[in-house]
Structure formats: C-alpha cells, structure tokens
What we know:
Elements: H1 4-22, H2 33-54, H3 58-72
Amino acid sequence: MGTNTERAATARTALDAYVRNAFDSRGLARIHPSDRVIGLGDLLCNLRHYADEERIDFAEAEAQAEFHYDHESQYGPNEQVP
C-alpha cells in the first residue's frame, strides 16, 4: 500500500504538474512557499468544478479522503500502512 512519504510524493508530483500548467513553468521547486498554498487551493477548487461536471459527489470524496487520512496518519512517514 505504500508509505505516507510515498503518498506525499505522489501528491507533490500532481500539484507540481498543476502549478506548471496553471501558473507558469517554474513548478513547485521555484515558487514561494505561500504560492504553494494558493496553488493547492486553486487545484482543490478546480477539482470541485470537475466533480460538478462529472456529477461526482465532492463531499463524499472529501469524507472518504478524511477517513483514509485519519487511518494513514496513525503511522510514521516511512512505515508501510496496512
């Protein structure tokens, strides 16, 4: 299933791709840390628009994410999560 460090790396890759596409080609490594918050918020907003168009219950997806996060966060960053 992987570790939380691996999960964070996957999310970082997705956010980096979004920031490069939506804002500029610099990506996460070259933007100010406060801009990462803006990028993440903008991506979440756009995911809501996507969910609306695809008739996906965003609140249900958010609740599922919270459930998984609560379980996974009980483990250290490099522990395998069962």
